Amino acid sequence: MPDEPLDATTPEGPGEKKKSLQFIRWDDSEPAAHLTMCRPKQNVMNIQMLREMAGVIDSLLNRKEVRLLILDSAPECEGYFSMGVGAEGYASPMVFQMMDAFHDVFRAMNEVSTPVLAVVDGVASGAGAELAASCDLVIATEHAQFCQPEIRLGVFPPLGAVIYPRVIGPRRAMEFLLTGDPINAQQALMMGLVNQVVPHTALEETVGALAKRICDQSGPVLRLLKQVIFDATWKPFSEALKNAQDIYLNQLFELQDSQEGLRALIEKRKPVWKNK
Questions:
Q1: pLDDT tens across 217-240, in order?
Q2: With 70 as the cut, is the pLDDT of residue 261 above it?
Q3: Average pLDDT for the chain
Q4: Domain of 239?
Q5: SS3 for the chain, per residue?
Q6: Does one domain contain both 155 and 253?
Q7: For tag attachment on the chain, is the N or C end more exposed, with fewer CB atoms within 10 Å?
């Protein structure tokens, strides 16, 4: 299928009708915003789909009331989270545009600092597996499968080669990427690639319960914490520690919510967050 025009607009502001979105569904009306990939049946990502994803994530930049972003796949794509980018994404005329669009999704996730929960109920392959691995939390069903088959095509996943050593460790990353062998949900759990594996029948309840526990917290504090953990994961220790101290002393304690949390502790009550 050829890519659709690349100038489609993305939504701005909460609750707007997302008429311009062709390959995703977007709901930002709740504290847990919901981005659903919907390009049946395998959610093969094209440039327009990736731009739509980056656009809606960018719209959360100043949305302090949004505490979590849930990323999943539409029911029409049953059996698949995403099979990655299309074959055109590996061809010389398109590879630069595709890579830029793909990396923009990850840039957006990091810049908005909203924690991201991936829900994988099926196959996540290639860029689809990289997408899940780059999220902050992953819940998978027993039907989930993860694969980076690029080595068998004579290439390698540049983002995955950077992310996997940090997520699952260098030796496991080497085996995963050098062989191209798929791993099932339980293997992914043992590797630390996913947080939980649940039966399909328990997926909605499990995701809802985790989302509620996260969304009960202060949105600005969640964002600051994600920023500190991101720095700790990707930056040298001394730089990450300095950044954490700076955020803790100069940003965290400027928040009304941090003061409210301390008052609630002293007064032995549940804090009431203002998300400020």
A1: 999 999 999 999 999 988 888 998
A2: yes
A3: 90
A4: 219-267
A5: CCCCCCCCCCCCCCCCCCCCCCCEEEECCCCEEEEEECCCCCCCECHHHHHHHHHHHHCCCCCCCCCEEEEEECHHHCEEEECCECHHHHCHHHHHHHHHHHHHHHHHHHHHCCCEEEEECEEEECHHHHHHHCCCEEEEECCCEEECHHHHHCCCCHHHHHHHHHHHCHHHHHHHHHHCCCEEHHHHHHHCCCCEEECHHHHHHHHHHHHHHHHCCCHHHHHHHHHHHHHHHHCCHHHHHHHHHHHHHHCHHHCHHHHHHHHHHHHCCCCCCCCC
A6: no
A7: N
